[in-house]
User: What shape does this take?
Amino acid sequence: MTSSEIYIKRFSAWAPGIENPSEWDEWSHDKRDILSEATSPKINYTDSNFRRRLSPISKMTIQVIHDLLPFNDETKLLFFSFRGELSREYQIFKMLTEERVISPSAFSLSGFNTPVALASIAFGLKGGYSALYPANNSFSSCIKAAQASVLSGKTDELVLIYADEKIPAECLNFFNEEYSPLAFALLLSREYKNEFTPISLFNTEDNPAAFLKKLLLCHGKANINSI
Assistant: This one.
């Protein structure tokens, strides 16, 4: 073990069609698929007026952060996505094309940072966040950015969040590859304990689903929270 190592203390995940740790275990062994559906977690622990206008990716992000709690409310968040609020943005462009107007309420929740910002509000997190798009759709760049944030000494712990919702059918032609809807969150730290997993084991994983599968297999039977 070296002083430059970063460890995954614990993690959480959510995906359509996977309801419990046993099903995550089946998925990690290629015995179950994530459903390609525009569904989202119910997040019934939030206020109904707060959640009723949220997109699937925002609900997915809120869910995995909820399942990762507790952590210090000053802990920084690092959010990554390959598509962001794609379904909401598509609806805005459609509205602009067909009706020549844009709904201010829809526009206000269409930013790339919307999911992590809403999660910070939902749980009263005060550590601040960054929302970054990974260069060349490379998830390994997400890992490197997280490592740099912790190793720089700016924070002792960091929550890395990845989330992408289902691509609307009308947008499929704009993407070279389609990732399944998936969200997960990792609590990272320089602290070492035997049960913590070195994140360097996954530095070469460019696909977020492949990263999560490898992490699950590394832990043996899935031990993540899932609703």
Remarks:
- The chain has one domain: 7-218.
- The longest strand covers residues 7-14.
